[in-house]
Protein 1
Amino acid sequence: MHWASASAVVFPALLALCAGQQQQPLSEVGHSGSSASTSQHAGAVDAPSYRDKLLELLEALVSTPSSNGEENEVGQYLVDYLEQEGYQVDIQFVPPPKDHPNVKDRFNVLAWNGARKSNYKTLVTSHIDVVPPHIPWEIEGGEISKHTIIRGRGTTDAKGSVATQILAVNQLLSTNKHVNPEDIILLFVVGEETTGDGMKSFSDSLKNMSPPLTFESAIFGEPTENKLACGHKGALFCSVVAKGKDAHSGYPELGKSANELMIRAMNKIYDADLGSSPLFGNTTFNVGRFDGGVAANVIPARAFVDVAARVAVGSEKDGQKVVQKKISDILNEVDDKAFTLDCTHGYGPYECNCDVPGFEPIVVNYGTDIPNLDADYVRYLYGPGSILVAHGDHEYITVGDLEKAVEDYQKLILYALNQ
Ligand SMILES: [Zn+2]
């Protein structure tokens, strides 16, 4: 992977871009009929000193669309922001996604204080890509309080994490003189929502990075409802094709219905025990796409499905294979010749350290970039907002969730630094 100094490569373009992209004050954005100014927000009874800064950063991030492949602009904004905050910044180019070959350069952003060292105590990381479609930033009118709701794509997954991580590190460094700024390094990656190519590129580059880069712990920002995750389920993604034989629907005995086989097989898989564990619960199964046949009066010769399982059993590297074997056995039971199972990728459940005083534990069912960061480190997974609204058309977060995250990230970073 190619790393480049951000100031040398990106900065001239960035200056021009950001000049045209200056964010509006909060008072002018999404306040229906409100004339409250940001300084009034800061003076609100429950407001921490960093509220305005936090909301301004999140607004800029959320207002910049960044679905997979389109992360150039938000990456450039982040580079500029971190440099203005006094960080040294490098960028790491990541090749365009296969289905978007002609996008502008996209890159991971790495930021630190002082000279770049080889060994860090903790890596603080999240992702800057979001799922489509873009949903503009909208903040509830009236005086801003902890209950104020902010809507927009990425508010929860995961620009809320990105903004609160940056604010937390800044806050910690400015208020705690015992923290060595050179113990912390920040990483914001592209591509988490699709193939994880951003984090995979970073992980691959660790081998030949100069100077080398190691870290004792990594704090991943994803929506965990402000709780500390003890781990997340694994995943398995497959396609299944059923091959039958076509015939007139009046004479089913002359054909072999691929749809019928597929329905019976999927039904069996839904009813099967695909494995469970005390920490992660049951493995769950989803037929996300189902298609087959050509017309109502034809016995269908071909059916296919795309399926995903959320894996609760087995080891990190191999848990998905346990589930794949169970699915394969069921397909064979239904018909030992008709099915082809093609599993493209997967991994087992990943545990994280949730044994930190002052945090409520949670286990989550979604995937993260943790499996893509292949190195020896202690993992933490924490972020503001709920996965239940992420990826939906009503994605939102509250000001209180964000501010709790700024406080909690500081606690978590301090804890990780002192291990
Ligand atoms: Zn995410």
Protein 2
Amino acid sequence: MVVKSEDGQQLRSFRFKDEDQSQEVRAVERRILLETLANQLPTESVRFSSKLANIETSENGATLLQLTDGTQILAKIVVACDGIRSPVAKWMGFSDPKYVGHCSFRGLGVYDGGQPFEPRVNYVYGRGIRAGYVPVSPTKVYWFVCFNSPSLGPRVTDPSILKQQAKDLVKNWPSDLLNLIDITPDETLSKTPLVDRWNWPGISPGPSRGSVVLVGDAWHPMTPNLGQGACCALEDSVVLARKLAAAIESGPSSTAIDEAFRSYGEERWPRVFPLTIRANVVGSLLQWENPVVCGVRNRVVIPKLVRLGPMLEHTDFECEPLVSAK
Ligand SMILES: Cc1cc2nc3c(=O)[nH]c(=O)nc-3n(C[C@H](O)[C@H](O)[C@H](O)COP(=O)(O)OP(=O)(O)OC[C@H]3O[C@@H](n4cnc5c(N)ncnc54)[C@H](O)[C@@H]3O)c2cc1C
């Protein structure tokens, strides 16, 4: 990883393995992850572009899902992984996630002849703005620019305006970053307001209601400052799948399913709740604007004080083999 200030000065450079033997960074393109997961399932079991319009419990305890194309599905079990604006979470009584005061531009630069970067994470810290870029394949490089914005402002979807806004934020920053934004195809560009929700025990509902259970951002939206949101969604899925499989194998009674959901919530809450708060606090610190504080950060904290090993412990999760060898 290389950390620079906005004027291009290198503040720190290190290898994750030197900080902590167990650590490494893997950048994975979302499309590749989704295709890899979908390819593990029988083709006919996945239906794309199925937007949920309404959800309700039917008289026999099953769940009726109505899609916007008019399709109705009566489901014995619903695992809702429908993201930060989850209509299922809303139906279960969760409040809307809260805007934390900063937004992020993101994109995927494509170099048809091969990307020029070394396999490392690059961070650039400014005042109230930070950016990063990392290669995700021999031809693609992911980047982001995160900036303070007390209000959300008008919703902009025109990619040329989004690109210009992103470039304006970092206009005198290292040219690598600006070139990367320039060559980013429109369809990969987005601007996202960062939000989270602190699911306090006793105040927020649990992750399940009847035969419906939440996974990932739908349950615990967190800011991306620790890079753990998608990782946690995958962890949720592994834990839930194991518990549900055991419940179904034991004869799928509603009591066994209830117990699987309860045990899933109990196991996952202590992992995701502290991470949500920590990601929020880290984000607030990283978005500092004060010039004196930023000067101390660049001259003392990043080069001399930060020890990444202990700060990365939250990424440790023992997944164990996913498919038992029989
Ligand atoms: C700027 C930024 C950087 C990030 N960086 C990282 C990182 O480095 N590492 C990391 O682990 N995480 C990162 N994250 C977080 C990560 O993107 C999310 O945590 C992750 O995508 C959550 O996965 P999910 O499956 O729960 O939700 P999503 O990926 O949001 O998927 C939800 C799905 O539900 C669908 N959906 C929504 N509404 C409906 C509906 N009504 N009917 C049917 N389907 C619906 C959506 O179309 C979508 O396909 C980042 C997030 C942001 C904003």
